[in-house]
Amino acid sequence: MQSFHNFNFKGKKALVRVDFNVPLDKTTKSVSDVTRISASLPTIKKILNDGGAVILMSHLGRPDGVINPEFSLNHILGTLNQLIGQEVEFASDCIGEDALNKSQNLKEGKILLLENLRFHKEEEEGDLNFAEKLSKLGDVYVNDAFGTAHRSHASTAVIAQFFGDKLFGILMAAEVESLEKVLKSAEKPFTAIIGGSKVSDKVGVIANLLDKADNVLIGGAMAYTFKKAMGGQVGKSRIEADKLNLAREIIQKAKDKGVNICLPEDSIVASEFKEDAAIQTQQSDRIDDEQMGLDIGTKAIDAYNEVIMKSKTILWNGPMGVFEWTAFENGTKQVALSVANATQQNGAYSLIGGGDSVSAINKFNLQNQVSYISTGGGAMLEYLEGKVLPGVAAIL
After folding, report:
1. Is the same domain home to 236 and 161?
2. What b-and-e string marks burial along 295-328, b requiring 16 or more CB atoms within 10 Å of the CB?
3. Total domain count, the chain
4. Which one, of 216, 243, 217, 218, lies nearest residue 229 by Cα?
5. What pTM, to 2 d.p., does this model score?
6. I need a surface site. Which of 16, 155, 198, 285 has the fewest CB within 10 A?
7. Where in the sequence is the domain holding 65, given as residue range(s)?
8. Per-residue pLDDT tens for 183-212?
């Protein structure tokens, strides 16, 4: 595979798949979170600094193959201009006469943004002819959209075959490198912190990590499915009744493989799923019938901190509770602080991924105290499950 950093884009038109699927303000349609756009800037600037031109393609939202002004990438143009520090041209479609003319006439050092790929149903269908039409717009293909790498779409998995020169962008390369480091060359002890609401969402990840991790710390609502499976009383806590056997199997496999699975000893509970509900602390396997677990308690926090601080590699995906509400944020906050402390004080390598975990790290202002924050939720989960991502395989 060619190295992006070593490639000279002088005189080349680079067709770059980015992930500009950003949140927009409902009223003004302006970009409300620039994280994904900012993450693409190093790749764009390297191409421009070499003396190349950049043609950006992305999707936005779910227009389902229909032209819908609500999902036009024109909404992000002002933000992109501001962040990149120059005027970006815009094509009214991603294929066709306007896109072709503007890409052919694009000068060195200039940028063209194409209209939403998903205005064409062929994008999500992985249509070969559509991919070929897109390929006519550039000389070099660069995939810098890790967040869509798990999709077999025309612009991510099919298009690369039409290029002699195809590369990962800086963001994509960093994402793959960080995941490979955790999965294949993790320094021991390796601790995986897995949270969220459903065992079913994370079972593939946990199963794959049982062959790699020394410790698996479980939090969030999914912990109560495990507690229930072990005969505990979890009150009104959210569980997946049809996954109790699966939870028991995971616990047994962990024992067989010598992996330490940690479940929260205590929980912060409330009788209602409300931000201002009255709270108390109860043992996680002895929760009263009218109560539900909404965060991990202080005993669990202390136990998890002890494991995290001894770790040399840490993977965190999923919160410990309903961290969006102040009453139930402490478990997630303390785990985030432990991960940051292990990284800063003990030199641990920490990888944070998944929308809620990233939101939590940002909420507690710890984003600069961990090793790497992944931009791809679904793509990261599938990679951690051991699946081959089509967008990655197309470049390798």
Report:
1. no
2. bbbeebbebbbebbbebbbbbbbbbbbbbebebb
3. 2
4. 243
5. 0.89
6. 198
7. 13-173
8. 999 999 999 999 988 888 888 899 999 999
Assigned domain for 136 exists: yes
CB burial of residue 154 (10 Å; 0-12, 13-18, 19+): buried
Catalytic residue among 29, 45, 181, 198: 198
DSSP element (H, E) containing 121: helix 121-125
Q: Is position 355 annotated as part of the catalytic site?
A: yes
378 is catalytic: yes
Is 231 among the residues known to form the active site?
A: no
Dihedral sign for Cα atoms in the order 197, 199, 205, 209? positive
**37 HSE (CA, 13 A, CB side):** 22
The catalytic position among 13, 36, 102, 151 is: 36
pLDDT for the residue numbered 358: 87
Give the integer Cα–Cα distance in Å for 180 and 93. Answer: 36
**178 assigned to some structural domain:** no
Cα 304 to Cα 273: distance, rounded to the nearest angstrom:
25
CA distances from 278 to 224, 264, 272, 273, 297 (A): 20, 20, 8, 10, 15
Which amino acid is located at 210 in the chain?
Answer: L
